[in-house]
Amino acid sequence: MEQKILVRDLLVRLANKERLYLLDVRDEDKYRAESLNDYGVPTENLPYLKMVEPDEDIQERMKELPTDRQIITICTSGNKARKAAELLREKGYDATSLEGGLTAWKQYHENGGNEPKQPAD
């Protein structure tokens, strides 16, 4: 079952001080260049492409992810975040992805607090 959260809903949950774990699943270079940290929202980084590798260090790092709060996965547009959230749910985590990713986050703020227009299916 696909799970995702809209920017405005994430902002409400953050404003309500819900204990969330925001996980940026883009590669390290993109994360360092720009992330939700730049907007005052603490975010960790674990690239999706590394999550699917059989690397022991990465698998150990995944085991350290919190089980006591929801993990919100974030990428540029939402695609990798959706896959990462699905992978984490398969491993027993409560995970969902940010719909539209960092792009939607920026557009939301640029549009004065309105969700960006989603393309019609």
Automatic annotation (TrEMBL):
Short name of any one Pfam family annotated for the protein: Rhodanese
Gene3D superfamilies membership: Rhodanese-like domain
InterPro entries documented for this protein: GlpE_sulfurtransferase, Rhodanese-like_dom, Rhodanese-like_dom_sf
Entry-linked SUPFAM superfamilies: Rhodanese/Cell cycle control phosphatase
Top-level taxonomic group: Bacteria
Residue stretches making up the Rhodanese domain: 16-114
Organism: Brevibacillus borstelensis AK1
UniProt protein name: Rhodanese domain-containing protein
